[in-house]
Amino acid sequence: MDPMDRKTVKRRFEREAIRESNKRVRTAEILLEWNRRSRNQAQEDGCDRVDSDEESDRGLGEAEDVGNGNNSNAEEQENEGEGIDVQAMEGERCREAESNSSRSSESDGSDDNFNDLPESDNEPEPVQHPNNYVREQLSEWALCGGVSMSKVDDLLKRLQPIHQNLPLSYKTLLKTPRNVHVVDCGNGSLWYYGIAPQLHRHLTQEYLLRHDVIAIDINIDSVPLFNKSSTNFVPILGKLVDSSEPFIIGIFCGTGSDPADLDTFLHNYVQEVNNLKSNGFQYEEKTWKFRTRHYILDQKARASIKCVKGVRGYFCCEKCTVKGTDYMNRMCLLNHDCQLRTDENFIDMASLQMMPRSEHFEDTEIDRHVIGISPLLSCESKMVSKFRLDSMHMVYKGVFLRWFEFLWSGHGSYSLGRRQKQDISLKLGSFRPFCPSDFNRKPFAIKSEKLKATELRRILLYDGLVVFRKLDKNIFLNFMLLHTAIYILCSPKYHKTLNHEADRFIRAFVNHAENLFGKQFIVYNVHSMIHLPSECFDHGPLDTFGAFPYENLLGKIKSQVTSRYKPLQQIAKREMEKVNKSENTVKPEKPLLQMPSVNDPHEQLVGQQYKKIRFRKTVLSVKKADSCCALQDGTIICITNIVSSENGPIIVGKRFAEMSDYYQYPICSSLLNVYKVKQLEERSFYLTLEDISHKCYLMPLDTQEFYAVVVFTDQSCQAIPTSWLDEEDGQLIAFYPKTFWKDHKVRKAIENCANRNPDTFDKHWNVRVLHYYNSLIVARNNLKKAEDTSSLDSENDVMPPRRKRKRESFDSTDNSDDSDDDEKKTRSKHPAPPQFQKALQQKIKNNHITQQTSKSRESPSRSPSTVGIFPHDMVECDLFEDDDSWSAVTPLRGSGSNVASTSSASDTDIVKKFGRTSVLVKSTLSQAEHMTMLSIQMEMRTKLERMERMLSTVMRSVKPSQKLVLPKDIPNLPLQTQEEFDGNENFLADSANRSDTSEYLATFINMNMKLKDQTYTILRKCLADNLASQYNWKGRDKKAFCSTNLCSALFGAILDCNKNSQVNMAEVEGAIKEWLKYAPKRASGYKKPGQDLSNSSSTL
């Protein structure tokens, strides 16, 4: 472009900018004059009421009407404005801006134009003004982080001509304090805000009703502020117990990772904690007791705050007195049965630090752990029992990441090859569509061992069960030991009942890992896992004292720092602004239906259908990622539809017909609610949200074929991902990068299975797939043969030449009787882990013999219902049953329905009840053995019931007159008394019994009958008239029938009978109301002349 043309364009843009600026100024001037004249007119007329529409027109809508010129009043004002004195207008505008600024800094920001108007009689409740709403939303947006205050100022200046109540500065909008008290602290500065102001902000009435004592957890960690800078934040964070939102107590900012002056850093905190503990916390004219529950820190912070040895010290363990060994430049802790440390012992060691070195020099073991006097000793006496072993840093980023790094980038015989890494990465990436929305980070193909803590947790507890399945058998069993132990400790249900088993599995994992990877693997984090079971037994599940909530807050703190100028003051002001804007109220949680869908014509329920429902931070959807959940009775279903009704949302789902154990080592997976499921039933279940126990993670087990060798129309062959294949109009098409792509980028896209982009990919028609492969390496090896022959069969694939079979050598220490997987016919070259299952079986057998002997010696008058039932023999199973059509189901940890059990195995007997069978288990067995035997009994009972149903089906086909199949243990019908009705309700509380009863009742009606007659027939079968007289539909002056399980069974029977047509549930409800209404007259024998009340109540 010519330089003159550039100048011309530049001038044109400058003129347009000046013109737009003049328009905005002119609009603001007209608006100010309109407001001034409106106020004067209102004062002269002395009007007492102003219509709400006129009020709105003078506020938000005036500028738009003036600018568009669509309103006649706006046109008149614009014409009047042409004769206004510009100098007078400028003075008025300045006075208005000054008055608005002063009002914003002194009051709550309300506009005088609307405060002068009287309240309307049509509004019984005060309605928030739109300008105030805009102001509040801007305040919340500015405090979210990630936006500089200069941008907020610029936005306020742009909005102020239209919204008069907005200030011109963010300081007035957010009520920013002028001064921040910061003290020097050695190598940096410290801002201490305090615990009490944050408690006033976060405490709610709901929290105080559930707690008698205000207890908080404390976290101290460091976070770097900028790249290539030594400036760090070390915040002191707190969190109310049973709350998920942490808060800031104080922040240190300086060079280095830790404060050099620890006494100054903790001085204000120690003083406030002592004050709150002695005097209590004043809240709403009441004094509440205060205490600190846990200190949740990583190892480096714990060593600094407690003044103890770090990970390189010989006596670095905080829970026991083990002495480390320096091995391969690492401090290895190999002894796992040393004496435990106590709070009193820690205080004694700290008191010795005040003595001269010569007086306690000979006591070499005591003075080597504590190296100083911690300031926390002034307010805390439990320096051992109150400091938790953080699961995030120790388990996920410590032990499991170390285990994964040894495999991914190690140099021993255990390290993974390139093909194994690729298979694991692709398998993990294939789980992305199946991963529930509860996980913040979805699975993706692994490119390195650098993973986030949330990703490591998901892989350890869920994905690893399937992803690591093809590893060497003994390496995978080592992973299973770690997975099972951590899964038990994370569970609110099992962390106490199976705590002893978790301790055995962790010790077996540590010992087996030492044999696999060497002594260099057993460092501080690995050794400290030995103490995790006792931590969880005393203080709750593992996730209750994790650092994940605090790490999230650290990220938000870092995002609020917008410049390098006084970062500590920036965070301090933002935090005090939040306190000024906060409202400690809790909104009631209600189910929220989302994404309305087109009504399914096959759905029998009448109502609006939805695809998603959100309740208590949990999302249930018809999509495969969020559709799997478990019911209260243990049944696993997949949601197929969500229907809205008057009584609440109805979940429609189908259950899996077959469920079995996914693994057998170290314990049966069914004990932890981990199953292998198969084949959804055709019959649908209708449930409420109360019937759902927890959400599940459904992972496919079938072999994924990620790559395919494809022949294009020009007879060229290429190995491409299967995600690049599609079908249109019955023809197979393939997507391939366009010609401008470079070769190395195309190879990288194929290796990473990149998403196909229609803008950069060409569509190729009439392609032909020669073969599918799991691995890209195998596909490329067979690609050359495909180019020569244009044919690939599974038995003609390129195979390496036959080699002479090596003589197998068997390890005498491997006594495993489990069969190997089909893919691995040879024995593992790595040492095998200990076998728990055989010892468990032998213990059960021995206990069975003891029970038989004791039974023969007891008196024959003993009740047979108290006899323990134990299997004589247990079938020894392989680790997996290879069937690729199954899916693994794992319940998500953290479900609110799983409540920790407070009972433990003691000298008394433990009675567990499963369905209709009560089994007495003697306390000589552990909880895992109880559950193993009971799971076998449950499996036997399930098989017997299935055979009984099959036999009933066969009998009905052979003998058509045999129509009625009476459910097992169903009460006698019709019900006569209230006691029988209550017993029937308990029977129908089980969803399986309710489903069977619905099928049974459906046999008394047929589709040719009207819905009203069907309802009457079932009600006469179920209820006697004298009992029905005590009920009506909603329970007004009587008992409510709509909330009973019998009502649900009745609806289910009608739906089963009318499967091929839609059912108007309102008509059924009306029939129930009418039948119950005339039940007293039928019970008294009343009838109209010539009519019979025994057949129907419609005649009344």
What layout of secondary structure does this protein have?
Layout: H1 3-45, H2 52-58, H3 61-68, H4 72-81, H5 86-106, H6 112-115, H7 130-142, H8 149-159, H9 170-174, E1 183-184, E2 188-192, H10 196-202, H11 205-210, E3 213-220, E4 223-224, E5 231-240, E6 247-255, H12 262-279, E7 281-282, E8 287-297, H13 299-306, E9 325-327, E10 330-332, H14 343-352, E11 387-389, H15 391-409, H16 418-429, H17 453-467, H18 473-490, H19 499-517, H20 524-528, H21 532-539, H22 548-559, H23 567-581, E12 592-596, E13 609-615, E14 618-621, E15 628-631, E16 636-643, E17 650-661, E18 675-680, E19 685-687, E20 692-700, E21 707-711, E22 717-721, E23 725-728, E24 731-737, H24 743-751, E25 761-764, E26 768-773, H25 776-781, H26 783-789, H27 836-857, E27 887-891, E28 910-914, E29 917-921, H28 927-958, H29 978-988, H30 991-1002, H31 1011-1022, H32 1025-1028, E30 1031-1032, E31 1039-1040, H33 1045-1057, H34 1065-1077, H35 1079-1084
Helix pairs in contact: 1-3, 1-5, 3-4, 15-17, 17-18, 18-19, 19-21, 30-33, 31-34
Spans where pLDDT lies below 50 across 5 or more residues: 46-128, 793-826, 841-885, 894-931, 959-963, 1090-1100
Identify the quaternary structure here: single chain
Beta strand count: 31
Radius of gyration: 37 Å
Number of helices: 35
The share of residues in helices is 40-55%
- Biggest sheet features: 9 strands, mixed
Give the CA-based shape.
globular
Terminal residue distance: 95 Å
Mean pLDDT value: 74
